[in-house]
Amino acid sequence: MTPQSILAELVEESRISDPTGARGRLLRAAARLFREKGYERTTVRDLAAAIGIQSGSLFHHFRSKEDILKAVMEETIVLNTELMRHALRQASTPVERMWALIRSELESINGQTGEAMAVLVFEWRSLSGDAQRDILKLRDVYEAMWLEVLGELKSAGKMSADPFLTRRMLTGALSWTVTWYRPDGPRNLDDMTDEVMAMLGLGER
User: Coil, strand or helix: which one is 101?
Assistant: First the structure.
């Protein structure tokens, strides 16, 4: 399956919004504005203006601005979880699976969902407690894939570090690439993945 076919399947299953529909366009615009201006400084009027509708029309799709923020986070986790699952299915060894995880996460942070991923990192505290718990349930599924592969690597003697701590450190390092990585720079995401693998002492695939 291609990323486009995975996206289409998730839309068909109503797990994420159609990016060409009103709701999907609103979520993309919201991710951009929340990233550029911050959640608190982005108004309902800003969101409506970004897709050319009246402010009141937003509430045909969402009950509140916080619901929009939550949906931005939910949908990017759902999409990137499925993309990561697909990447893992193409790998046959723990080292290859680790490469696939790193490459997928770098793509999610610096590719088409980059703005939404940045919102997930930087606007987390803007969610209410109940909303945070809902997002954490989705994140737990995503993180379980990482911990499984890191556990496989440790069991195989490929790494000695604690899987949980390794993942926490990788989360910070990979998330931070959004602040400095440039797609038009000297290294592409495959190169970046190879560098991270080298730092972990795993070499290339």
Answer: helix
The C-alpha atoms of residue 103 and residue 192 are separated, in whole angstroms, by 8
Do the beta carbons of residue 60 and residue 66 sit within 8 Å?
no
Q: CB of 116 within 8 A of CB of 72? A: yes
Distance CA(99)–CA(101), nearest Å, equals 6
Which residue, 112, 80, 91, is CA-closest to 16?
80
Closest by CA to 19, choosing from 75, 70, 57, is 75
Do 205 and 99 meet the contact criterion of CB atoms below 8 Å apart? yes
Report DSSP letters for 135-192, one per residue. Answer: HHHHHHHHHHHHHHHHHHHHHTTS--S-HHHHHHHHHHHHHHGGGT--TTSS--HHHH
- pLDDT tens digits for 42-75? 999 999 898 887 777 778 888 999 999 999 999 9
115 close to 123: Cβ distance less than 8 angstroms: no
- Name residues of the chain where pLDDT drops below 50: none
pTM: 0.90
